[in-house]
Amino acid sequence: MQFTTPIPIQKSNYQIDYNSKIVSLGSCFAVNIGEKFAHFKFKNSINPFGILFHPLALEKNISKAIFQEEFAEEDIFFHNERWHSFDVHSDLSVSNKELFLKILNSNLESLRNDLSESSHVLITLGTAWVYRNLKSEEVVANCHKVPQNQFKKELLSADEIKNSLEKIIAAISEANPKAKIIFTISPVRHIKDGFVENQWSKANLITAVHQIINQKSEIINYFPSYEIMMDELRDYRFYAEDMIHPSQMAIDYIWKRFSETWIYEEAMLTLQEIENIQKGLNHRPFNSESEQHQKFLGNLQQRIEVLTSRFPFMNF
User: Fold this and answer.
1) Confidence band for 1, pLDDT divided at 50, 70 and 90
2) What string of DSSP letters covers 163-222?
């Protein structure tokens, strides 16, 4: 008896192995998938400017990185005893202005290097709703708890999103013509915008991405994270306690579907060995001094050494 409606996903022609280098950018679901890559010891970097929910925020930071534009004093401001930038997440905010600028520009350089060396860029779009700063008339990535009356809320149209995605693709291709770009829509429900408004937002994102794919299918790919959550995992048990974010079970399932279509079968054998080692490292014995446990640790270390001799970049 079939209790779900599995989405058919065609295997990619540009699969990922342990020679690949992945850059994960975008919403908090980009972090979820990026952390999976990190757990399984792929060469991977995640959101150097923190979580960025909408395409205009991603476009600005990617363009700055690729075209070597630096953050300057006029790009930052002091609020609630910390320095912030409307272009990055508050996780980067600090109390020292010089240090903040140094962090921002160092992260730009890291992003430029990572994109230039990447084989795959995974971009997760969270929402089409944005906030425009009334003073600067610029769309911001994060409001940093600045009073709401200083912003105007807007919904990006599919055409505006498409235009932004084209600029993102052009910038990445400028630095790295061989990079494959994977777009996905975050399954996180942005219901603070409203239930209908969340679906409207997701629809505009999906429309824009598919218009792009139809034009640039040789370098652009789509993975249906949002659709898997909506159609295969159609149950509130797959949400976290806030009923907004996917639960760990849902994240694990979506990762499984991703790995089935995007990771080489040969790499899956290494991935499974790494999972077994990770479980071993997390094992808590009743007696850490016992002879049996010492043998277990010795065997685990041998398995780690075999892997790191093949893949020196791995660090356990």
Assistant:
1) low
2) HHHHHHHHHHHHH-TT-EEEEEE-----GGG-HHHHHHHHHHHHHHHHHHHHH-TTTEEE
DSSP state of 237: G
Chain-centre distance for alpha carbon 41: 16
Predicted confidence (pLDDT) at residue 152 exceeds the cutoff of 70: yes
> Dihedrals φ, ψ of 35, to 5°?
-70, -30
Structural element, H or E, at residue 251? helix 248-262
SS3 (DSSP) at 151? strand
Q: Determine the Cα–Cα distance for residues 265 and 17; give it in Å rounded to an integer.
A: 9
Which strands form 43-46's sheet, in the order they lie side by side? 43-46, 21-26, 120-125, 180-185, 220-222
237: left (phi over 0), alpha (psi -120 to 50) or beta: alpha
Instruction: State both tokens at 61.
Output: 């930071």
Please compute, for residue 210, the number of CA atoms within 13 A of its CA located in the half-sphere on the CB side: 8
* Predicted confidence (pLDDT) at residue 217 exceeds the cutoff of 90: no
| pLDDT of amino acid 290 | 83
| Closest listed residue to residue 252, CA positions, set 40, 61, 64 | 40
List beta partners, residue 44.
22
40 Cβ contact list (under 8 Å, min separation 6):
271, 274, 275
